[in-house]
Amino acid sequence: MRMKIQTVLVSVDSSSALRGARQFKKHIEENVKKYQLSDMVEVLETGSLGVYKDGVIVAVYPEEVFYEINSTDDAEQLVTEHFLKGRIVKDLMIDKSVIKHEKKETGKLDREERIVLKNVGVIDPGAIEEYIARDGYMALAKVLKEMKPENVIDVVKKSNIRGRGGAGFPTGMKWEFTAKADNPEKYVICNADEGEPGTFKDRLIMEGDPHSVVEAMTIAAYAVGANKGYIYIRGEYYGSIDNIRKAIKDAYEIGLLGEDIMGSGFSFDLSVRLGAGAYICGEETALIESIEGRPGRPRLKPPYPPVEGLYGKPTVVNNVETFSNIPWIINNGPEAFKALGTEGSSGTKVFTLVGNIINRGLVEVPMGTSIFDLIYKYGGGIPNGKKLKIVQTGGTAGTFMNTKKLEIGLDYDSAKEGASLGSGVILCMDEDSCAVDCAKTVMEFFAHESCGKCTPCREGTRVSVKLLDKISKGQGREEEVEQLLMIADVMEQTSFCGLGQSAAIPLRTIVQSFRDEFSDHVQKKPCNACTFVEPKKKKRSKR
Amino acid sequence: MSTGESNVICAEHEKLYKTLDAFIEEVKDKPGVLIEVLHKAQEMFGYLPTEVQSHVAERLNLPESQVYGVVTFYNFFTMKPRGKHQIKICLGTACYVKGAEKVLDRFKEELKVDMEEITEDGNFSLHGVRCLGACSMAPVVLIGEKDFYGKVTANEIPKILKKYRG
Ligand SMILES: Cc1cc2nc3c(=O)[nH]c(=O)nc-3n(C[C@H](O)[C@H](O)[C@H](O)COP(=O)(O)O)c2cc1C
Ligand code: SF4
Ligand code: FES
User: Fold this and answer.
1) 3.40.30.10, 3.40.50.1860, 3.90.1170.10, 3.40.50.620: which CATH number matches B85-162?
2) Does a structural domain hold residue A84?
3) Distances in Å between the alpha carbon of A400 and those of A442, A458, A502, B8?
4) Which of B88, B101, B103, B132 maximizes ligand 3 atoms within 8 Å of its Cβ, making it the mutation to test the pocket?
5) Which of A423, A455, A479, A488 falls 20 to 30 Å from A109 in CA-CA distance?
């Protein structure tokens, strides 16, 4: 059977160019035209596909056949045999494992294990060819050509990957639920509303490697039987919006999105939806409400989105980072993925290091890496010779700790030991920071972002800001510190959605970890960081 | 204000409404399109006064209350005019740790406005925003849509403002 859309990639790196790669490419193009195949065959130039003997390497997708081209005759034969007659040219074909083997040796993994960030900063995100040249869309080709939807789900399940958006739900199970839901109409949504303060990993993935998200969403759609997808991007992420839009457009142009992708009979449409500035819209059901054009207030769960999601149809919602792991898992197998990380948490995690830390930015390391290593080995420690005082892991909704438990390795189970993984933020604060002030900032954030639908969260966040404000000014009472812990309990147990439930976590953990400091404020003893006697000089004046 | 002047404003508004209607016509059959239309309307009018909201409601055949509900829910939408240059100061935790408060105070002082207010000449308005996803450059200030300033110190603020004056 001849594929409707085929893509030929001609490897044009500096050494292939010397061997005439550009000339061969032109020759292939001319022949494609001559035999009136232009509608079906796309010829693209890419970076190095690897090294093999003396020829120029050419890859044909979706068949994933590699050829060695040494002359214009070879180039013509490729067109007349492979494209016109649909026969593989055995004489020119090379075993792709030979090339790949060499590639792996040259492109060794560096100290950080890069799966998600492997292309970020390496390829031109606006050039689909560059993505393709680094095995891009190979996973999709494999999935569409060789795998049944249930095999795809099986691989994802075996890899043990869990959601990177904060909740940590097993991705394979989510896909399976959606696939099994009996409904001809289904959706795939990418949650790119990244709003957790301190987090910017999703932004970097979308800006640096947008095609990985597009490819993964298409794979997910095939696996669960969806034909329509949305990427819901935070409205302020202008760079991400531009790059994702361009990626989608380019993928459509070469037939990697739209009708009958790679001739497989499978169709998938993908579009961008913009967020309008509400943290709560990152919660999956609120996000769905927002896509439907309403205020983003969370829905009651269950039913969960895999059963009843967008427009009441079964829907997969996954985070950007979760998606961008998928092509690697398909290409390298679930075992390779499981070999990284810890028993219950496989793979890598992208961490953002922020606050008072020398190397502020992103690192991708295996799951289970300790907080200590993240701060001192990758983060370079605390600047200006200051001492570390407060650490918050997991994002604004994550746990606070003092410096006594830095040896904890961060993964999905570390929350039990007192350090949540969350969205992978490590926020460091040095000795000049005040725990009470810091708690106030965090609770102000939640008070502002609470959607107001339920009382424990709406009032709990508001009252705790009030109490913290009093305490920070030296006007609080010991009972009020206790009251904060009580508010945390009530919010955690009775809030309607994850926002209120998780707002309790930073509140409780900061009070518990810095209990003495709270008491000092109550007793009007000054701390290094804030001078309660003269509220005006305080770091944080009232807005 | 002379009537002549208000006529000019009317004519200009009419043109904006026409463009908006054309946009609505194009997208109105897509599901869940209200937010997209409001994005567009705010981009054109600068803000979303009640007249614009009613207009959108009518064209999309939605109750006004629903449009109002959406506009007031999302921080991005505003019913008050904003400055020509919107100064957005990140108040996320990472920026707070790196001294965002001092930066904010200096902006207030230089512009003589409070948060969410607009300067008398309409050139600037001041806004606090959630983490902008650029925490490694904290404290961060975003002016307009694309001018990012990282590691901002209070002292360089007059220099930054100068670029947008005049
Ligand atoms: C208040 C709140 C905010 C959230 N914000 C985000 C977010 O910005 N990005 C995200 O991917 N998930 C966010 N989530 C989690 C989502 O609800 C959902 O679990 C996630 O998108 C599922 O994807 P995953 O399984 O790939 O992690 C948030 C949850 C809550 C309760
Ligand atoms: S917990 Fe907070 S954000 Fe969630 S529904 Fe209740 S008020 Fe809204
Ligand atoms: S906290 Fe300011 S950019 Fe993230």
Assistant:
1) 3.40.30.10
2) yes
3) 11, 22, 12, 58
4) B132
5) A423
